Amino acid sequence: MDKPKNLHKFPEIERTFVPIKPLMNTSEAYYESSRCLFCYNAPCTLACPTAIDIPLFIRQINTGNLSGAARTIYDSNYLGNTCGKVCPTEMLCEGACVFTKLNIKALEIGRLQNFTTNNAILKQQKIFSVDDHKNKSVAVIGAGPSGIACACELRKAGYKVDIFEARNNPSGMALHGVAPYKITNEEALMEVEFLREQFGFDIIYNKRIEKLEDLQFLELHYDAIFLGIGLGNSVEIKIKGENKLNCIGATEFIEQIKTQPIHKPFAKKAIVLGGGNTAMDAASESARLGATEVIIAYRRSESEMKAYYFEYHLAKITGVVGMFNIAPIEIVGKEAVEGIKFIRTETVDGTLRHIPDSEFIIECDLVIKATGQSKQTHLLGKIPGLTLDNTGRVSVNPLKGQTTNPRYFAGGDAVNGGAEVVNAAADGKIAGKGIHEFLSK
Ligand SMILES: Cc1cc2nc3c(=O)[nH]c(=O)nc-3n(C[C@H](O)[C@H](O)[C@H](O)COP(=O)(O)OP(=O)(O)OC[C@H]3O[C@@H](n4cnc5c(N)ncnc54)[C@H](O)[C@@H]3O)c2cc1C
Ligand code: SF4
Questions:
Q1: What separation in Å is there between the alpha carbon of 29 and the centre of ligand 2?
Q2: Rounded distance, CA 221 to CA 407, Å?
Q3: DSSP H helical segments within 48-158, as ranges?
Q4: Dist. CA 48–CA 46, nearest whole Å
Q5: Which domains does the chain have, with CATH numbers?
Q6: Who has the most CB within 10 Å: 142, 338, 352, 391?
Q7: What distance in angstroms lies between residue 268's CA and the mean position of ligand 2's atoms?
Q8: Cα(397) to centroid of ligand 2, in Å?
Q9: CB of 254 closer than 6 angstroms to any ligand 1 atom
């Protein structure tokens, strides 16, 4: 079996990106767990896409049963540690905490989850046992959160599982995309290694499934296939000058800073195009890396941004400035980026319009395009009988993860078009159960 590439530790990354949700110590965890009201029909559990029994694991922490607490978390969510760090908890479990209705600070569920799972990972706690009794096997394409969760569920049921991964590391966007002040590379890799020890699935790295023959090989050698391929590269915005030096897609930019040493001096003035969470991350990361001025430019108004408010806030506290109702029409410069020509916009009767003769140029030396990721239709289009919706997302039965080609299952970003790690973890588990049901017939 291949080993993941040992990502170098880059001290400048660790110095630059201080964790926003640091690990609790034991006293903090006991104190915080003692605040829980252990609600009946707990709203936090209902708000968690993986339905972790939150009051139960918090009670287990409070009674000193840390191994039981870890089991409670991992039984529902195989990416328990990663999710505790990267989940937008304000919008999910913590946002639903009854304390928020009383104007009291919500219970820090994510950090309690990390306290527990971190302990289990460091102690190599054995949580699951695998009985290799099935003589059937499943191929998983992609070692991101959905693929890993699906592999765990299938190994628990006794199937042989091989994961085919295009990159040289597992964890998908949880490693290559999520901001380093939420999770470090080491932490993301540590959980996958912990799961591989528990379940014994194989990961074949540097193996992109891309040709028809690759798919035919999998169909011949495996009984079912899970598509956990996520999304593709950043989409092009199709304006003049887009191919100039230092005009880069947000996901490519973030992957670069997470996997390669940072070259300083960093950009002087960066402009991030977009109004989603990825735009906020890219802007925040540019500012933390030392860009002296960072602007988020969005073509609609501030209130129409798709980004969560707290992500925008995180960017603003690093000095990032938002500019609204401006659309880029050209990247200007000789070989490298020297600025962006914008035009002002307004919304009339629900339609976004350019305001004539309102063009202006903002100088910059870095342009980051955070205007969405493409779908992997070049691969998906080769799978016979697979239905995609009109935006290129894979259509599945949401209760089983089964696609319109019965031997193929799918989950995560490839199905939802781009959501959170916790949704991918939930989908992978559902598809694992769906595959088990399909292969048991
Ligand atoms: C910049 C950015 C920031 C984010 N921040 C957060 C955050 O703070 N919190 C949060 O919860 N979520 C965040 N997300 C979203 C989260 O990372 C994704 O929802 C989640 O990782 C999706 O999991 P997945 O398994 O569906 O796909 P991915 O994580 O994309 O994993 C897919 C895997 O499949 C591999 N692959 C793709 N095609 C092939 C192929 N043809 N053959 C073999 N392997 C292939 C890829 O290399 C990758 O490892 C962020 C996403 C981005 C892009
Ligand atoms: S997985 Fe995420 S949403 Fe669910 S309880 Fe944990 S931190 Fe909250």
A1: 16
A2: 12
A3: 54-62, 66-76, 80-86, 93-96, 98-101, 109-122, 145-156
A4: 6
A5: 11-122 (1.10.1060.10), 137-166+207-232+374-440 (3.50.50.60), 247-369 (3.50.50.60)
A6: 142
A7: 37
A8: 24
A9: yes
Instruction: Give this prediction's pTM.
Output: 0.95
Identify residue 373 by its one-letter amino acid code. Q
**pLDDT tens over the chain, length 441 residues:** 455 555 545 555 656 678 889 999 999 999 999 999 999 999 999 999 999 999 999 999 999 999 999 999 999 999 999 999 999 999 999 999 999 999 999 999 999 999 999 999 999 999 998 977 789 999 999 999 999 999 999 999 999 999 999 999 999 999 999 999 999 999 999 999 999 999 999 999 999 999 999 999 999 999 999 999 999 999 999 999 999 999 999 999 999 988 887 666 678 999 999 999 999 999 999 998 889 999 999 999 999 999 999 999 999 999 999 999 999 999 999 999 999 999 999 999 889 999 999 999 999 999 999 999 999 999 999 999 999 999 999 999 999 999 999 999 999 999 999 999 999 999 999 999 999 999 998
Q: Which of 61, 82, 86, 89 to mutate to test the pocket of ligand 2 (most atoms within 8 A of CB)?
A: 89
Name the CA radius of gyration of the chain, rounded.
23
What are the backbone angles phi and psi of residue 24, rounded to the nearest 5°? -75, 150
